[in-house]
Amino acid sequence: MSTLFYEPSTRTRLSFESAMSRLGGTVLSTESAGEYSSAAKGETLEDTVRTVEGYADCIVIRHSQEGSAKRAAAVASVPILNAGDGPGQHPTQALLDLYTIQREIGRLENIKIGMVGDLANGRTVRSLCMCLSMYPGVEVFFVAPDVVRMRDDVKDYLTKRGVKWTEVSDLREVAGLVDVLYQTRIQRERFTDMDSYNAARGKYIIDKELMKILQPHAVVMHPLPRVDEITTDVDSDPRAAYFRQARNGLYVRMALLKLCLADKMTADDLNK
C-alpha cells in the first residue's frame, strides 16, 4: 500500500498504515507529497499515480484539490482510496463515523444528528450526510456561522433523498434534541480572508455547561484535530466519543483494505 498525502494528516494516514501492517502488508509512505515528491518539480497527479501504482497494490491519497481522488482513479490500474480531497469528500471517515454511531447509539435509523462548525469546508460532514441519507428517519440539524454554512449541493441531495434537515443558529437548542452532536473545527487553511475566519472561529464551543443539556444517551463526535471547539474538560465525560471514534478508524480501514486486496492476499492473511 502506498500513502500519498499532499495535506497533513495524523489519524487517517497512521490508521491506514497500521491497518495495512496488521493485515500483514507493507507500506510505502510519503508525507507532504507536494513538497517531498516529484510534485515539487511540477509532476502532475496523474503521472505520480501512474508511477506509484507500479510499486503498490493500492494507493491511499489525500490532496488539497476537490475531485483529486476521482482524477487519480481515472488513470490508475490499482484501487484508489480517497483519504480526503480538499473540501470535497472524506468517504472512509464517513464509514468509521457510521460504525461509531452504530456502536455508541445502537442504530443508524431514526436518529437526530447536529452537525456543528465549518460545514462549508468540512469534507467529513459532507460525506456523512450522504451516507446517513441511506437510513430511514434520519434528521439533520446544521449549526454553523454564516460564512461556513453547509453548501447547497449537500442540502439538495438530502432533500431529494427525503431527509429532513434544518439550519439552526442556537447550539444549545440543538444539543437537547439530538442523539449525536458532531463538532468540527473551523478550518483556517481553507480561508483566504482572515477576517472571515476570525468571525467564524469560537462561535460554537462544546463545554461542560453544554454537556448538561445533552441527553444521557447522546454522544459527542469530532473527526479531529480539535483546536478550541471542544474544551478538554469534556474529555472525561463518557458521552465524549471522539477518541473512540478515532480508534474505530483502524478497524474500518482494515476492513476496506481487506476488501480491496482480497485477490492479492493469501488464505492465511484473510483468516487473520
Describe the structure.
It is a single chain. The relative contact order is 0.14. A five-stranded parallel β-sheet has the order 7-6-5-8-9. By secondary structure, the chain is an alpha/beta fold. It is 39% helix and 14% strand. The protein starts with a strand and ends with a helix. It has twelve helices and nine strands.
What labels would you give this structure?
single chain, about 270 residues, alpha/beta, 5-stranded parallel β-sheet, 4-stranded parallel β-sheet, 12 helices, 9 strands, about 40% helix, about 15% strand
Beta strands, count: 9
Shape: globular
Global Rg? 19 Å
- Specify the number of helices: 12
Class from helix and strand fractions: alpha/beta
